[in-house]
Here is the input.
Amino acid sequence: MATPEIIGSIRSTYTRTTCMVCEEKGIKYVLMERPLHAPEILAIHPFGKMPVLRHGDVELFESKAIATYLDRSFPAPFVFPSDPHLAALAEQWVSLVNTVMDRTLIRTYLFAYIAPKTADGAPDREAIDAVMPAVREQIGVLDKAVARTGYLVGEQFTFADINLLPILHRVGQAPEGAETLAAATHLARYYDRHAARPSFKSTMPPAGAPGRAKPTIAKT
Here is the structure.
């Protein structure tokens, strides 16, 4: 079988999730480091967003679609539950994180630090102060969600957790985010526990937003 090729930057939380899926499943893959709108990405994603996947004749974009394809194309362990209710819960949390929380925690809060629109390039304090109530609210929702079992879905590690962990890592790199996470005791415990997973450690990105291209990386 052809080796899956993930194209994007490991600095991107969504590129990292697809790499984590491969790591969790023991899939040999290649990560081609490319910035947003790179020709190799635009050839697959109509808007040049990352990650994209090439696997033989298969080309896909959107991390959830890529993760589903990889999970169904390669043998166990599986990151999507087979039970209908648990599968729906995984979809529920992936959807909420991707459509609501990513916009707050990454696109607004974190980007006010790593990609500010200020004239001097300093962190956008106005944007940070304005978004912090929503950051605290959403972290509180996640704290409650993982309180009982230490997972987002039932009592098993699923793609819902894989999808969230890179976001929590990025939020914790900024001061208010780190403070908010530390105060959410259940979520802090959840993060510390799962951050010890080999798939999380082996995909640790450097700080900063997705940048210039780097060499292709083969993973086994």
Summary: The beta strands are 5-8, 29-33, 52-55, 58-61, 217-219. The two ends are 14 Å apart (CA to CA). The longest strand covers residues 29-33.
